[in-house]
Design brief:
heterodimer; A: alpha+beta; five-stranded antiparallel sheet; four-stranded antiparallel sheet; B: alpha+beta; five-stranded mixed beta barrel; 8 strands
Chain lengths: 679, 140
């Protein structure tokens, strides 16, 4: 199996390099018939890599511990689901996952892209092939998943217990899918630059890929938060850990792109900036993989150091140099077609939105790399943590929330005073109402207050947009309200899907603000003893320690501590937290003990209990008890955001001919409410 | 004034604001990350360094870990081979902090004039594993 896997990797490498060479050669010598070869090469690469991936899975499920990777990450008693997921648990497998998925995406891009953009496709094939080739080279020369050991261990090491969690089976692939799919827009951007076809064609050709990749990133990041929350047991979901930061970076630049690209479609501005954002997103996605996989920065997730880091560094530099050189060469062809006409315009709102997003991205990157930068410049390593990130990013994030509400209200080009008055009254009133109510409730935390009031403003904006749209349809076509709502959304998917995404986004922000009111307490309790904790919503929880029980379960020995929970005097149930000692099939301990957190979730607050250990093996137990307000809304926000995102990219709708490309930039067929045309 | 110029001014204000936040943020929240040897030489040459919050990356001296589960206090010694000093911490240490030999830790806190490092956070990195992982402790 490893032989076949190994062979497939080489085969894929040759096919990838062959395809890329043919594509460039064909364009250079004006031999269009070679384009088909370039396209076909992507299918070959994908097929070979799928075979390689299946070989690794075969090895994992066959418990072939002679394969180093299988021995490192699985054991005989590891549940099947985790054997499956062990594919991406380690560095080598993740690289194979990256390469395989990218090759599949590359092949799909060749198939689904409309023939109108056929001229771009050979270059797209070349770029995706070259990126795949980089990953294969890294595997073959530095981190080969098919490497065999000189001996065969009787059992494998097993999977790290913290990775034995349902979230872990989908969080890494989701995030990788996000990282990986950014390559496709990057390939289109490069293809447009190489082929000088710099109209909005390339943007239309890859628009859905940008949304897809943004959705995967959003889902991947949120799943990571969920995993950290239920598995790491420190009572939160975001710690500004380097790897978390690395996943946020491309998300920020992609979000910026999704907005600024609308200005290019609508007004022909920001062409250079947009190419720059795509290149930056791609670099950051490689950087994210690099940080996760190189161990250059100490983090919860980072892997042991190896030569892989150098491969990534070299690739990052190469990509940056090549992309920006090509961008520089094509600079004159990317002349903007219009200028900013007024500060009170949607363009200006989008520009500020981009500034805020890129500002956040820059500060996060800076903070993440600061230990390295300071060591290189000043000779002393200085680290920055959550206080730094919160201080810099909270103001920027609040500005972003405000713009989320403002953007949709302002007309393109230049808004009139009348337009502004008509548009802003309801949303602003909604924001102020929220602020007054919260002040009345005694909330004085300035950031939380601002965040929630701005969220009220955004909700006002979105509601008003939906309300006016539905009313207009209702009046013009006589449709009943639900029908009007359905048609409104399905006829303007990008616009109204986008609004739903905005609601998802502010739901996150509102939930994050809730963490300002987190309460935590550490206690040591004997059996029958109780502790009390008061929640920010005014509830009193009384937790009574019931004792510690110990038993064997699956592949582990468990010490479980139970608490009986009374909320305001009413018994609401039990909460368990476990210490687990994982064992291999011979009963020997593997890994350090791990903690299983006990969580009682609610819409308002989560009761979060960590069993930190028993006192000298007795029934006395030490607990960390935390009340985390509004955490549920993070997951709800994710759901809303994903639904909105799916609506914007749902296939179908009006077929756009090249002649009317300008007007048809999805969503803008509808008369702009507030632009003076809606009635 | 042209709208382009106006936007440029607005952009510069934002860029300046962000830069300001980053610079002061680093100055006020940045924490030195030192080895025990660097820390000892720093504090000998400049005693005020005892009052500065720092992070130290070092190895736990095998067999030096003393736990008091009831008081949630843990005492241990750290070393980088050349210099060694005791650390005391009250709170819950992460799962990755074990009594096994050669575990690496990152401790945050102050190196007191009493020669004891008073930690407010302990992160443990386990050398016995394929993946160098860090566990996170809650703030005390």
């Amino acid at each position: 199996m490893t032989l076949l896997g190994q062979f497939s990797l080489w085969l894929a490498l040759y096919a990838a390099i062959w395809g890329a060479s043919v594509a460039f050669f064909g364009r250079w010598r004006e031999r269009p018939e070679l384009a088909a070869t370039a396209t076909r090469s992507t299918y070959g690469v994908a097929a070979a890599l799928v075979v390689a991936a299946l070989c690794l899975w075969k090895g994992l499920f066959a418990h072939d511990f002679n394969i180093e990777y299988v021995a490192q990450y699985t054991a005989r008693n590891l549940p099947d689901a985790y054997v499956f997921a062990a594919f991406w648990a380690g560095q080598k497998g993740s690289l194979l996952f990256w390469a395989s998925i990218l090759s599949i995406f590359g092949a799909i891009a060749q198939t689904v892209t409309s023939k109108r953009h056929a001229e771009l496709l050979p270059y797209v094939a070349a770029i995706t092939n070259l990126v795949v080739a980089f990953f294969i080279i890294t595997m073959l020369f530095s981190a080969n998943p098919f490497e065999r050991l000189p001996y065969t261990p009787e059992d494998g090491r097993g999977l790290n217990p913290q990775l034995q969690n349902p979230g872990m089976t989908i969080h890494p692939p989701m995030l990788y899918l996000g990282y990986i799919s950014i390559t496709i827009p990057f390939a289109f951007a490069m293809a447009a630059l190489f082929s000088r076809r710099l109209d909005t064609g390339w943007i239309h050709a890859m628009r859905k890929w940008t949304i897809l990749s943004w959705l995967f990133l959003s889902a991947g990041i949120t799943l990571g938060m969920w995993w950290a929350y239920i598995e790491l047991g420190w009572g939160g979901y975001w710690a500004w850990d380097p790897v978390e930061n690395a996943s946020l970076l491309p998300w920020l630049t992609m979000t910026a792109f999704l907005h600024s690209v609308m200005i290019q479609e609508k007004r022909g501005m920001l062409k250079r900036w947009n190419v720059g954002l795509i290149v930056a997103s791609f670099l950051l996605s490689i950087f994210g993989t690099f940080i996760t996989r190189s161990g250059i920065i100490a983090s919860v997730h980072s892997f042991a150091q190896g030569t892989v880091g150098y491969f990534f560094l070299a690739f990052l530099i190469l990509v940056a140099v090549v992309s920006f050189t090509v961008l520089y060469v094509r600079w004159p062809l990317l002349e903007p077609e219009a200028r900013l006409e007024s500060m009170a315009s949607r363009e200006a709102a989008f520009l500020f939105n981009n500034l805020a997003l890129v500002g956040i991205a820059f500060s996060v990157l800076w903070g993440t790399l600061f230990p390295i930068i300071s060591e290189a410049v000043r000779g002393t390593k200085i680290t920055v943590g959550p206080p730094f990130f919160n201080r810099v990013n909270i103001p920027l994030a609040l500005m972003l929330v405000a713009l989320t509400g403002i953007g949709p209200l302002i007309a393109w080009r230049k808004a009139s005073v009348q337009n502004l008055r008509r548009q802003f009254v309801i949303p602003v009133a909604s924001g102020i109402t929220v602020a007054v109510v919260l002040l009345g409730l005694g909330i004085r935390d300035i950031y939380a207050l601002t965040a929630w009031s701005l969220a009220g403003f955004v909700v006002g904006t979105v509601t008003q947009e939906f309300g006016r749209g539905v009313r207009a349809r209702h009046r013009m076509h006589g449709e009943p309200v639900p029908v009007a709502l359905g048609r409104l959304v399905s006829r303007n998917r990008r616009r109204y899907g986008g609004y739903i995404v905005h609601v998802g986004f502010i739901t996150y922000i509102a939930a994050f603000a809730g963490m300002a009111f987190k309460v935590t307490q550490e206690v040591t309790l004997g059996a029958g003893e109780s502790a009390e904790i008061r929640s920010p919503f005014g509830h009193t929880y009384r937790l009574t320690h019931l004792g510690v029980s110990q038993y064997d379960q699956l592949n582990r020995f468990v010490s479980a501590a139970s608490l009986e929970v009374r909320k305001d005097g009413v018994r609401i149930g039990r909460i368990n937290s476990e210490k687990r000692q994982h064992r291999d099939s011979f009963g020997r301990n593997t890994f350090e003990p791990s903690t299983e957190v006990g969580i009682r979730s609610g819409l308002r607050e989560d009761l979060y209990v960590v069993f930190a250990g028993s006192v000298n093996g007795t029934d006395r137990a030490t607990y960390a008890i935390t009340i985390n307000p509004l955490v549920m809304w993070v997951w709800i926000g994710a759901g809303i955001l994903i639904v909105g995102g799916l609506i914007t990219m749902w296939p179908g709708g009006a077929v756009v001919g090249p002649g009317r490309r300008r007007e048809a930039q999805a969503g803008y067929e509808a008369p702009l409410v507030g632009a003076g045309t809606a009635g | 004034m042209k709208p382009g110029t106006k936007f440029l001014i607005g952009a510069l204000v934002i860029v300046a604001g962000v830069s300001g936040l980053i610079v002061t943020g680093v100055q006020e929240t940045g924490v030195y990350f030192l080895t025990p040897t660097q820390l000892v030489s720093r504090t000998t040459s400049d005693p005020t360094f005892h009052d500065v919050g720092i992070k130290v990356g070092a190895k736990v001296v095998p067999g030096s870990v003393k736990r008091d589960q009831a008081a949630r206090t843990i005492d241990f010694r750290v070393t980088d081979g050349a210099n060694e000093f005791p650390v005391t911490y009250t709170g819950i240490v992460p799962d990755t902090f074990t009594d096994a030999s050669n575990i690496e830790v990152i401790v945050s806190g102050k190196y007191g004039r009493d020669g004891v490092f008073h930690a407010t956070e302990v992160l443990a990195k386990c050398g016995s594993r394929y993946e160098a992982e860090l566990g996170k402790s809650r703030k005390a």
